[in-house]
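Entry 14. Two folds queued back to back today. First construct below, sequence then structure tokens.
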Amino acid sequence: MMNERAQHLLKTLIERYIADGQPVASKTLSLLPGIELSPASVRNVLADLEGMGLIASPHTSAGRVPTARGYRLFVDRLLTIRPLDELSRHELEANLQPGSPQRIAQAASSLLSELTSFAGVVLTPQRSDVAFRQIEFLRLSERRVLMILVTLDGDVQNHLLLTERDYTPSELVEAGNFINQHYAGQGLSAVALRVESELRQLQGDIAELMAAAVKLGQQTLEQGSEDVVVSGGSRLFQVHDLSDDLSRLRELFGVFERKTELLKLLAQGRGAQGVNIFIGEESGVVTLDECSVVTAPYCINGQVVGTLGVVGPTRMAYERVIPIVDITARLVGNALSFRD
């Protein structure tokens, strides 16, 4: 159990280190405003903090730096969040206006990177129940049909259907008209359930075609519904803490390109209440061991549909990054909800 004096020293040391990136010596700490302790007393407290695994001494310096464990305690118990400045808030509000989900995700990712000078990441809205506006079937050749699906978002999806028999153009028009007349505007998962029961009443192979089409459309859209938009990865070249190790930086860019690890990590943030922070190894991604990932879920009409955040070094200004991520998530949700 740390006393108040030890907490104050740890908080001051971490804030100092975040500000200039230099290991903090006991003498430096003793001279700072609000530290009414001698260098010897400061050394004793720092030794205790080091024994608790909250700070460490780099080999090349007599000063101390925070560990991932120290950052965690700092963020959870000692951090003072600052209100976001009006200029940054205005920039977010001006650029996160209603539009297509992809445009909003791209804008949010770019803004997160611009305002924090780190990498901005956005997990695009999860489309577990995609509603469609229109469906059309075109005969390509014998037993090959092109299905054109237009969602309510305006996305156009083309899918190849391999059929059991050859359909005439008039049969394909009939099938498309039936689906559009009875199911347009509904979610594909709900339509799939209705089609399974209702089409049993219809005779012939057209019913089989329509059922297969809806099922394929649902599966394809759901499988491709999530993506991670990454902006500003190159900004990490300017971060001294990361740019010193080029091999690690290359691995980090590999994470951005593959996106698989980011998808899993951001998906974890869906269940969080507000901002969630992964420090170092907490992310579960080895390449991000020297990084912190600050995320927040965003909602459409009260339902969480995606996550966004920032990837940067563990030495980041959390008091500024956290409100940026928090407000961006709220504005993205508002823009998507308004569009709906």
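Second construct, same run, same settings:
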Amino acid sequence: MSSLASLVLLVTTVTGIIIPTKREYGKALSGTFIHVTAGHLDFHLDPYYVEGTDVSSFCHTKDGDTEKGVAGRFGTLGSKCDSPTALVEAAFAFMKAQAPDADFVIYTGDSTRHDRDKKFLRTKEQVIEIQKIIVNYFLKGFSTVIPIVGNNDVDKHNDIKDFDEQYLEFKSIWEPYNLNYGSEFDRAGYYTQDISSNLRTINLNTLSFSKKNKLVDECNATDSSGRHQLDWFKKSLEDVRRDGSKAYILAHIPPNSKKDKHFYRESCYSEYYSILGSYSDVILAHFSGHFNHDQLTAVLKNTEDGTYTRVAALGEEEVPMTAQELEKYKVVGVLLNAPSIIPEKNPAVRIYKYETEGTRFPVGTILDWDQYYANLEEANQSGNLKFKLEYTASKLYNVDHFDASGLQNVFEAISLNENVRTQYTNIRNVLGNEAPVEY
């Protein structure tokens, strides 16, 4: 029996897919939710991963070349190997134990392994089956999961056009989540989901904007995939504003890379940030993954001419803003890029606290988050993977809520306080073997 077949059998026999009932408005909320992403969990689950094999073979076979390292039980730090089953199961066990009452999980994509190994090429059937496996893992611990499409979740990674039959397959795979699909999902996999009567998620498919998707055009092209999605994005935000509600934005690929390069096509990129700025009164947070770093990118409003731009906090490589720029530009929003499960860095899971009552801040306002990580080298040596608290955002930045004013304080701290910037640099790379953050 193949590794993939064995894994499918294991998951489906232990627990069949259970379709949960939809959350009813008025049900008490705990005020916590989980964000997992590429790997993230970009789980990038790899059923062919074999402990003790060569990193040079993507942790699949023993070719005798161990110069680049040997595959560990829970993954191989800094390699191009994907996530072994042991790591994925440990991550789910931690989430279930740490936040059993989480109101929902946002999953910003990439269940399936990369297609790097020419000896073990991915098939469409494997892409579908691994996504079904991840659904089963989620449903063993959580009733409300909000997923989006990752660039490795499609048959040919990065490439997909509008009205591709794969979007119908996503609808079928995700049926147990009881999502609020609209007609737009059939076009390109984007949709909205209500969290409560006054908070919803707007769930994008960023492959419509990606430079690497060879099957889409610029967003200023009539009838392009990106043009349709940006128009829908604006309409969805208008609906939120009209209803007196607030929104979270979910995106797999953020507009900028870890080195602040543009991931999106140019016309898509500029309009995207313009939308984020123009609707910053209703957008409470923007969540993404894809490049495995813990990174903050601010949406800025120019106080002189009212235009919008952005600045990324890149750690010690660059001070985000000077004192003069902090006077000229005001933070109106932030893109929260979370680190991942895939062991390019140490595996990580994030748990947010958010406002549910609306007495002090609007419902949905991010109040805090705890970032957890697992020391992968330590886990492989001991045979036991444990997630530890890496940092608590409110303590690190000395901020008690993360709306525009709170985020302004965050970027002032990173820009003007060298100690905070040093600590931010460490957490941006998920610590490695560094000591935990000291407040």
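Quick look at the second one. The chain has twelve helices and 13 strands. The chain has a mean pLDDT of 86.
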